[in-house]
């Protein structure tokens, strides 16, 4: 009778324990700065591999319409954290009080590049003299165009710089309506694929190899979120950083994970994009100062060139005030 009673008690206790809800996950809203793709893979990888869940987080991902859009939504509290070009954040904070802070770097090299068609007379940046270069009117690369061309021994006045719809840039280049285009390195796979369809090959001249030493795409966060939930912010960035590492260790799997969440993203294109932009993430700068970390001198140079490009008094902003190193573990 005693044994039967004990067995009954044990069974009842087990049933009660199994009926208890698991500890609730804390929700974090993550704002993209553009459409999903290979360059946005780390957050999808961290989500699909369970890195967020392991640290007690449920992450909701929202699509974006550019860095300014992402900054605006995060500042308004519609998202807790997200991606943005640090160039846009520093410029915005120089002229306005914005409750958003940079907390982790993603692209520690400038993502811009000149693209030309091989065999058409532009085989180096110096060959752009007296040529036509097309770019989107909205891209932040326009800010640094004068600096890059003069840094490479050219006169800006000697280059015809025209603006065109972003969707028409690659066709313009491939069909000979411009000698070169400026675009992000993240567009490499798309441009190369279109070129190969008509039997062409392209040259790519990244600006990080042409003297533009700046930070770019970064993780930013709402100041109130950082103040009220610092531990959540640290756990989120820990999981995201793990996703970054996994993404470039396993690009094909990472591309497939983006596709699983966003079916319209081609997994092969996503994987190829991840591989094509490896140098933006894993490079001498990130190796020397740690993946995701903002190095003081490079951040200062980033701000110096932004101020120079936009004719802003550099004294209007201390770039150190725009970022925080309190939420990412040192490598």
UniProtKB/TrEMBL annotation:
It catalyses: N(6)-(pyridoxal phosphate)-L-lysyl-[4-amino-5-hydroxymethyl-2-methylpyrimidine phosphate synthase] + L-histidyl-[4-amino-5-hydroxymethyl-2-methylpyrimidine phosphate synthase] + 2 Fe(3+) + 4 H2O = L-lysyl-[4-amino-5-hydroxymethyl-2-methylpyrimidine phosphate synthase] + (2S)-2-amino-5-hydroxy-4-oxopentanoyl-[4-amino-5-hydroxymethyl-2-methylpyrimidine phosphate synthase] + 4-amino-2-methyl-5-(phosphooxymethyl)pyrimidine + 3-oxopropanoate + 2 Fe(2+) + 2 H(+). The keyword Zinc-finger does not apply. Pathway: Cofactor biosynthesis; thiamine diphosphate biosynthesis. The keyword Transferase applies. Residues 1-24 form the signal peptide. Keywords: Iron, Metal-binding, Pyridoxal phosphate, Signal, Thiamine biosynthesis, Transferase. It comes from the Bacteria. Residues 41-254 form the SsuA/THI5-like domain. GO terms for biological process: thiamine biosynthetic process. Homodimer. This is Thiamine pyrimidine synthase.
């Amino acid at each position: 009778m005693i044994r039967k009673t004990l067995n009954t008690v044990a069974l009842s206790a087990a049933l009660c324990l199994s009926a208890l809800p698991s500890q609730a996950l804390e929700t974090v809203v993550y704002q993209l700065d553009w459409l999903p793709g290979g360059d946005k893979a780390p957050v999808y990888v961290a989500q699909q591999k369970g890195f967020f869940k392991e640290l007690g987080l449920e992450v909701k991902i929202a699509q974006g319409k550019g860095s300014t859009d992402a900054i605006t939504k995060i500042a308004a509290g519609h998202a807790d954290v997200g991606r943005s070009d640090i160039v846009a954040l520093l410029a915005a904070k120089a002229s306005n009080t914005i409750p958003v802070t940079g907390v982790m770097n993603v692209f520690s090299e400038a993502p811009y590049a000149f693209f030309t068609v091989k065999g058409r007379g532009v085989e180096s940046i110096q060959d752009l003299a007296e040529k036509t270069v097309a770019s989107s009117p909205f891209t932040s690369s326009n800010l640094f165009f004068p600096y890059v061309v003069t840094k490479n021994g050219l006169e800006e006045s000697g280059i015809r710089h025209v603006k065109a719809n972003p969707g028409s840039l690659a066709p313009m280049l491939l069909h000979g309506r411009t000698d070169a285009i400026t675009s992000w390195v993240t567009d490499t796979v798309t441009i190369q694929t279109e070129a190969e369809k008509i039997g062409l090959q392209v040259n790519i001249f990244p600006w990080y190899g042409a003297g533009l030493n700046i930070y770019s795409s970064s993780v930013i966060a709402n100041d109130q979120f950082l103040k009220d939930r610092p531990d959540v912010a640290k756990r989120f960035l820990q999981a995201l950083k793990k996703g970054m590492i996994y993404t470039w260790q396993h690009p094909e799997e990472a591309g497939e994970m983006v596709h699983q969440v966003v079916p319209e993203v081609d997994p092969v294109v996503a994987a190829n994009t991840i591989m094509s932009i490896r140098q933006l993430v894993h490079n001498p700068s990130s190796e020397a100062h740690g993946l995701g970390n903002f190095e003081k001198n490079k951040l200062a140079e980033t701000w110096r060139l932004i101020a120079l490009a936009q004719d802003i008094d550099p004294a209007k902003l201390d770039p150190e005030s725009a970022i925080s190193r309190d939420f990412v573990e040192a490598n």
